[in-house]
Amino acid sequence: MRKFNFIKTSIEGVFIIEPTVFGDERGYFMETFQKNEFEEAGINEYFVQDNQSKSKKGVLRGLHFQYTHPQAKLVRVIKGEVFDVAVDLRKASKTYGKYVGAVLSEENKKQLYVPSGFAHGFLVLSDEAEFTYKCSDFYNHEDEGGIIWNDPEIAIDWPFKNDEIILSDKDKLYKKLSETSTNF
Ligand SMILES: Cc1cn([C@H]2C[C@H](O)[C@@H](COP(=O)(O)OP(=O)(O)O[C@H]3O[C@@H](C)C(=O)[C@@H](O)[C@H]3O)O2)c(=O)[nH]c1=O
After folding, report:
1. Where do the catalytic residues lie (predicted)?
2. Residue 24 CA to ligand 1 centre (angstroms)
3. pLDDT tens digit string along 6-54?
4. Which of 23, 63, 98, 100 allows an S-S link to 147, with CB 3.0 to 4.6 Å?
5. Are 116 and 70 spatial neighbours (Cβ–Cβ below 8 Å)?
6. Domains in the chain, please, with CATH?
7. Is residue 159 within 8 Å of 149, Cβ to Cβ?
8. What are phi and psi of 40, to 5 degrees?
9. Which atom of ligand 1 is nearest to the CA of 114?
10. Which residues are catalytic?
């Protein structure tokens, strides 16, 4: 029996992944990652770091990447609901500068697989959200990069208005994609 449904998106290599959920009188059980099925779907990653964050409503974390140690990410929500975004930064890609957006929630249990060569970010839609993800390379502070969340050329259709959005000081300072030199 298959444990995951891999749904292709408008960007090559990005998948929405739906788990098979086994409910019973105790609650539920699901697998959240399994090497064999992911590899069959074309996702060949060796994940080396797992992260978790909690954020309040309106918090937008992103759009982040690492310049020379890019991280593929497998992301999901364990509490609440977010709008999650992956922006294609792969120079040779026919969807360069385009994005995929998906609502991920505690309820729908969907995951987003974001390959290396993407910027990633999310906006919290619920009162609070706990977010967890696997990464294919280690965090490297010196290597961190980002793109401003409201870059008009990417034109992400965030579900909240500008004045409802809470950013870190670092995320406020990022520039547009056209002013950022990446090498993916
Ligand atoms: C991301 C990260 C942060 N930190 C530390 C650095 C800092 O003191 C504190 C908070 O870091 P940040 O503000 O960068 O956290 P955050 O804004 O949540 O950064 C994350 O955003 C999402 C969208 C991603 O895709 C991730 O890859 C990562 O960039 O945690 C680590 O120690 N390891 C890590 O892997």
Report:
1. 64, 133
2. 36
3. 999 999 999 999 999 999 999 999 999 999 999 999 999 999 999 999 9
4. 63
5. yes
6. 4-179 (2.60.120.10)
7. no
8. -60, -30
9. 25
10. 64, 133
